[in-house]
Design a protein that fits this description.
The chain has about 120 residues and is an all-beta fold. Helix content is about 0%, strand content about 55%. The strands form two sheets. Strands 2, 4, 5, 6, 9, 10 and 11 form a seven-stranded mixed beta sheet that branches. A four-stranded antiparallel beta sheet has the order 1-3-8-7, with no helix packed on it.
């Protein structure tokens, strides 16, 4: 069982920045692709960014150039640096871990709230 704990959410003004962190325990994180997803009220959970085991990143179009995902396998952490935040970025942000060899091992954190408002 992999435990994922997010932190760093909060209230920020449009144009501001925020850094989210996810700490994993209970597994070998180097065996997982990691990702950040978000869910706004009344909407489906959507991909924000993913990062492979070797550090290759992929982003949803609306966050390209504004968000950066990174990982540190030695520290079992993944981060999402968010800048130029917009009101439409408001959502609960979730950390995800997907085992790259055993598909049934997929884990989610509890989520952290990000609110972008004047």
């Amino acid at each position: 069982q992999v435990q994922l704990v997010e932190s760093g959410g909060g209230l920020v003004q449009p144009g501001g920045s925020l850094r989210l962190s996810c700490t994993a325990s209970g597994g070998i994180v180097a065996l997982y692709a990691m990702g950040w997803y978000r869910q706004a009220p009344g909407k489906q959970r959507e991909l924000v960014a993913t990062i492979t085991r070797d550090g290759s990143a992929n982003y949803e179009d609306s966050v390209k150039g504004r968000f950066t995902i990174s990982r540190d396998n030695a520290k079992n952490t993944v981060a999402l640096q968010m800048s130029s935040l917009k009101p439409e970025d408001t959502a609960v942000y979730y950390c995800n871990a997907q085992h790259q060899f055993l598909s049934q091992y997929n884990y989610w954190g509890q989520g952290t709230q990000v609110t972008v408002s004047p």
